[in-house]
Design brief:
The structure is a homotetramer of 480-residue chains. Chain A has 480 residues and is an alpha/beta fold. The first copy, chain A, folds into 2 domains: 6-90, Flavocytochrome B2, Chain A, domain 1 (Roll); 110-462, Aldolase class I (TIM Barrel). In chain A, 34% of the residues lie in helices and 14% in strands. Chain A has an 8-stranded parallel β-barrel with strand order 10-11-12-13-14-15-16-17, surrounded by 4 helices. In chain A, strands 1, 2, 3, 4, 5 and 6 form a 6-stranded mixed β-sheet that branches. A two-stranded antiparallel ribbon of chain A has the order 7-18. In chain A, helix 17 crosses helix 19 (419-441). The first copy, chain A, is elongated, with a radius of gyration of 28 Å. The first copy, chain A, starts with 5 loop residues before the first strand and ends in a 25-residue tail after the last strand. At the A-D interface, helix 2, helix 4, strand 7, helix 16 and helix 19 of A face helix 13, helix 14, strand 14 and helix 16 of D. Chains A, B, C, D: GO terms for molecular function: heme binding; L-lactate dehydrogenase (cytochrome) activity; metal ion binding. Chains A, B, C, D: Keywords: Flavoprotein, FMN, Heme, Iron, Metal-binding, Mitochondrion, Oxidoreductase, Transit peptide, Transport. Chains A, B, C, D: Its EC number is 1.1.2.3. Chains A, B, C, D: In the N-terminal section; belongs to the cytochrome b5 family. Belongs to the cytochrome b5 family.
Chain lengths: 480, 480, 480, 480
């Protein structure tokens, strides 16, 4: 290369974009444009030096021959004319600093968030104590909340290799509605505490990212307002039956007029869980029943909701709407079978995020119990699940085990701390994690998932294979 | 609502009670009286603003339409007359502060206690070191004490949904005596160290809350004094046989004249456990046998109690009293079967709170062992249990597995730190936890419990299915 | 009692001994002599107030009627003559202080030690770093050392109740030699580092307490000197075969002339474990082979011992001595069977305290493996065990599973930090723990132990039932 | 010895070498030359006192008779002539200090490193943050990375005793190439970040120590330069197929001309894992696709490598080279069987160090899965493994279970922090650990390993015995 032409720093500096990117390495000038996206270390590292001298960082990592072996000879443009070096040339490029420490109580920039645990961590540090307590709390010892996550970690993959996975797509359908990913936002109460945009911001995010959204009977905004904001979102409605059944009839009548896609009837909340981190912040409130301070939220928290809803009421709800009906909060294979007998359109396996009854089964184990006791259900209705999902790999595990889609509640609420953009970021992270995991698992679309791709050996012994207790033959006579 | 009448702050302020409760929201005046108990966030939050302006807190959580959708139109009373706003109106309502930090060594107000662990924590911080050591201690490595709790946490629920659970009642019977909850206070020694009221305060609490009480042969007050204080308490008596059998005969003769309901003969204390946190506080005491300081409490702690009581002595006790006889401290299915053969009225599965022999089985596993080896017993006599119970859910698990009632020792002792009121609070917490859990489990009274409502898969492998060791065929010949 | 006589403080003060003990309670004077040993709280608490006023401490714990109910009427001596109270009377008795904090690096008084863990803790704080490192160290990751203890904790009792356990005795025999407890001191090297008395002090302690002692080929003192000091100790000898076999022949010839009871041939040390906490203290020593500093103790630590000893050599050793021969360091049922075929007198299940090969099986599991694979051995030869034993309950578990006696190495070495008295104290603690546990387990002598008294369910799945790997059918062809 | 001759300090001082080593003990002068290597405490301790007075350290450990019993009488040379003691004599020998504390950020001397964990610890403290992050990172929650190590620890030995293990040799063959130990250096990217010598230094170390080396397609130096430096190293090549297949053809053509022994085709990297500790350091880099900062390295990290390589491409690779072909990254027995059907020369069980898909099976479990499902493979092709190996015992476990050789990646990279000498030290440590473990396991060469020498009971339940999920019968119909 000794007879190559000399190139001035001024000329080199102009080739400083992704479309036209020159680098100086050991006084050689290289056109790296075609290589940017092939760089094993990623394009950003090259672009940081676009139109500049990259010798120092290059040499820390590569041997001099690497650039010659990686680029074709015509990419070599000549040698640096060292006589043209000036103070401008000598300035360092913007250094790549790790994310700056953020002052206490302030949210770090959204681009520094790299997974869904970050959102929870940031909310813990920056939301008001009562917002964080209400969002993170669960019933009594929080066993179910924590085991939702822990049990997912005890299920592993059995990945297959040498499949063509150049193109991967996690698109799916929920009740016939196409979504870009089999993920939905779970209904939550007091959403506005986290961010004034509440379900509106979530709806815009879901619409933009192509996932579904379920809103609560207790949503901060009514369905029609959310649909005004985000007309394209696949919106579903979580229903609590009101003690005054007439109110529920009116509500369903209204929903029938809106572009709502399904009704998720909550069946696991026929009582209120004792949520202690929340309760502890409110011990000084006066109990209006007793006139005294302290405790007892579980009992006194009034509820407009009917605790007497039974299987027979499904017929009544069916008479009020033609929308698909899903039972949310199924926790045993036995009740999944009853749901099938009652011809609902789907079940959502859920323990209410561990917020109601502690020591209910971790969600993913309910899915396994269905495989043990009633695998035929998977072909007859759609099965959804929520509880503990934080990662693309978590979602993929549930899909392999027959779930049609996966819901996330708290994580999207923590992401809502950043408004719509936070929720979009959360979806984006999940999609990236899923796509990476699908490739590495050896599949390209979700028609290819099946139980043989996961190893559940570490939890199989925890899954009941019978309706009754396996060895306790005793059943009590009437005991009163 | 523009043509509604204007209402003065003076008028609004008068509607400030649970019976008559107006709120101002966004300048609208609403009569919320009918809604107070339906408020999903609980009535207290509404009552804090009774007769006041709630706009600020309302807006943090709700959208403007919520109030219109939740209340009927006639609840709208008009608009706030802003010209009547004065300094009184502008005063904030009493803020809802989280419980104040309490100075070191002082008990926090009782109303801030929300579960039974709180009582232990407060005792650790506020009782004298020797009181706390004596109460919390257990034998050697405290394995059994800690596993009593841990094993309960390894048993889960299998809750059923869509049952009518509007009305729930945990009432039960113990030996034919009706109680409001299947719970009793276990006998404890040195009770007075915790509180001068000792068993008297406990008896009044048990009477008031409708649960049973067992007192120790070593109780701080004799049975007759407790019954004087709390004549309605279902009182039972824990018996140690005295080395001088005549004393036991006299004791039973006296009990026969009192309103005592049963005798619980302790069978797991034919020796004294080595309780190290207690022993460590006493190493400087001079051992009167050796004349030296240190150690050996286990051996030297004199005992008036007969270590030679055997199955044959049951006949003798039966000859002394007609009261029901329960064996307290059964730790194997084999001994439960012997108890049945000896026709006692019940057994109490107990390892003495782990205070005697460390590595005795966690109580709940003994219950499971009975299901494996002798399920017929549950229909022939009453089975009680104690050891590690701290939560309503714990109690419910044992009931599902066949226990007729559950005892708590240390937790009520720690609650006694607050006297009678503390013990009542403890019972109240347990009842609230039980009622909430029953609803969420899908049952309304205790005749509905059965083993199929719990999942014991995580501990089933720990439960012996035979009297002998399952694969160790060897039995020693005489070895001396 | 109003008409009782008044007694002066001077008179009361004279009844201040275990043989004649008066107490003042609420102005009543009581002769408690007959009750001292029956006091549930132990005699020391009474004796502290002998001849004094005990009202204050009594009232904290007892109700006024307790003393009347516990003592016969003739024990009441009269009332305190309050006019005789003077400054002497008002002085407090010596307070019962908890053990004083001890200055850094100083050993606390021996009487404050209450279990064998205390000895280790004290050695860690007061021995020289190299002494503690050498004693506590084990091979590489110390898995086996730690699991020796952990696996013992995973075995539980199945205690039986209502047995007459007034008199309990842990006496046993080892190879026909009567001992007061089935416990022996294991051989250790560099014993003198811990205390100059070394094996002499241990021998005196073993003699005094009636247990056996095994000394190492590497003992700090030769067998004859130890036997001079402690002629009554049941002394056994741990043998390493010397590379120069003649030296071993001379050694055995000498032992044949002494009152040595058995030879324990070590078979698990055909190499040296890599003991890192020890090695780390010596990295600056120059390796004389390489002339460099650092590492490699495992390889370079010269050994006089023959790494080529095989099963065939047992015949040779038998030709040199008539003493019983035990193989120390058996770690599989397969080798136990070979030992039986070679007609040795016993095996000692041991992994050298985890000091040689890490990930060798925890000792107690080897005992279980023998029950699975060769239970007949227990009737044909004596089986000993060491590794992880720290408590009376540990020893009892091994005895239930067929061990004839249990060895402890490190714990006695840590106790030797206090010389002979420390070792005696350690034995005393173990005996007290064993006696307490035997009573509570429902047995009175060691002929009554059997596997049905323990529950090994938590570890059974870890015990191989075959010589070969249970499902790995492959065996390599020659691989080189 | 009283009539022995007196020897001056000047004379004694001259016997101060391994070949001629005198010591003074209690005024006696002993020639210890013949005993140096037999000293149970190692030769270094003796040599430190060669030609000097060792009484003080000797007495701390030994009794006066030890030296007489250990040495033959002719080793006694006489008594110290105390009149010749001078200041030179009284100087202490160089003290044996434990390794000095090293200033923050500086590497401690290499001779203080005693195991492979030390190298990682030192790199964490002394490498640049990005070097350490890149090297230590793994995918998302790092479960697989950590479980690679944890599962190895759950496999134990079943050692056999009384075998002749005087001579032990861990030599082996890899693909017919003799190596001194069945260990190879795994391929790594960005190797130069750790040390400028990169693969050249590793190659020299591998050559010197007699192990194999695999270099990456992304190696810092090309194969020919490494072979120039270390012509004797058994060099193997890890292949990523380039998107432009022609480049791969050229690469293999070049390799065919070099002394490369095998091609390891990576099959577990058809996507890029999300490595968060790495990603977190780069969140401020601008994503050239989106033009925004943050995240998404997983997706945007361009790759020159073909994600569409399938089983059919094996034929194509075979057409380009005659070198043995091994598939690196097999994670199921099913794919191992496919590999055998495609007649490759071997498989390497690997999950890419947990860097690609989290929750892939820990490597050692894949080996066990092959025993369950396809043990015949072990006799038909060579099976290698990497992932979590840090100790000689780890390697030995894998060999017992059928692995022909074991690879280490991160540990050698951390050792490279010290250049060639560091890598040699790492190999030396592993060899010493293996030799020690082989002796203690009762084997002398690697033809003697077999599965019966390990106990895998603690993990057996985690190993799938079927291709499909064992009880989930459901397989999805097409789901889109």
């Amino acid at each position: 290369m000794e007879d190559s032409r000399l190139i001035s720093t001024q000329e080199i500096s102009q080739h400083n974009s992704p479309e036209d990117c020159w680098l100086v390495i050991d006084d050689g000038v290289w056109d790296c444009t075609s290589f940017i996206n092939d760089h094993p270390g990623g394009p950003a590292l090259i672009l940081r030096y676009a139109g500049r001298d990259a010798t120092k960082e290059y040499s820390e990592i590569h041997t001099p021959s690497t650039v010659r072996n990686s680029l074709s000879p015509e990419c070599f443009k000549g040698n640096l004319d060292r006589s043209t070096i000036d103070s401008t040339w000598l300035q360092s490029p913007t250094p790549s600093n790790p994310a700056q420490a953020v002052p206490d109580g302030e949210k770090p920039p959204l681009h520094t968030v790299i997974n869904l645990y970050d959102f929870e961590d940031i909310s813990r540090r920056t939301s008001s104590p009562k917002t964080y307590a209400f969002t993170s709390t669960a019933s009594t010892d929080c066993w179910t909340r924590d085991q939702n996550i822990a049990m997912l970690r005890r299920i592993w993959f059995r990945p297959r290799v040498l499949r063509d996975v150049k193109a991967v797509d996690p698109a799916s359908e929920i009740l016939g509605v196409r979504t870009r990913m089999p993920v939905f936002i779970c209904p939550t109460g007091l959403t506005k505490m986290m961010h004034p945009g509440a379900e509106k911001a979530m709806g815009r995010a879901a619409e933009g990212e192509g996932i579904a959204q379920i809103i609560s009977t207790n949503s901060s905004f009514p369905a029609e307002e959310i649909l005004n904001e985000a007309p394209g979102v696949p919106l579903m409605f979580q229903l609590y039956v009101n003690k005054e059944r007439k109110k529920t009839e009116e509500l369903l009548a209204k929903l029938n007029t809106l572009n709502v896609r399904a009704i998720f009837l909550t069946v696991d909340a026929a009582g209120r869980g004792k949520r202690e981190s929340d309760e502890r912040l409110r011990v000084d409130e006066v109990n209006p029943v007793t006139g005294k301070k302290g405790g007892g939220l579980t009992k006194i928290a009034g509820s407009a909701f009917d605790q007497g809803v039974t299987w027979d009421d499904i017929k009544w709800i069916r008479s009020l709407t033609k929308l698909p009906l899903i039972l949310k909060g199924i926790m045993t294979a036995s009740d999944a079978k009853l749901a099938m007998e009652h011809k609902v359109d789907g079940v959502m396996l859920s323990n209410h995020g561990g917020r109601n009854l502690d020591f209910t089964p971790p969600s993913i184990l309910i899915l396994l119990e269905m495989h043990r006791q009633c695998p035929e259900i998977f072909d007859q209705m759609e099965v959804y699940i929520d509880g503990g999902f934080r990662r693309g790999v978590d979602i993929l595990k549930a899909l392999c085990l027959g779930a049609k889609a996966v819901g996330l509640g708290r994580p999207f609420l923590f992401a809502l701390n950043y408004g719509e953009e936070g929720v979009r970021k959360a979806v984006d992270i999940l999609r990236e994690e899923m796509e990476s995991a699908m490739k590495l698992l050896g599949i390209t679309d979700l028609s290819q998932v099946h139980p043989g791709l996961v190893n559940t050996s570490d939890v199989d012994h925890l899954v009941p294979s019978t309706l009754d207790h396996p060895y306790a033959k005793w059943r009590p006579k009437a005991r009163l």
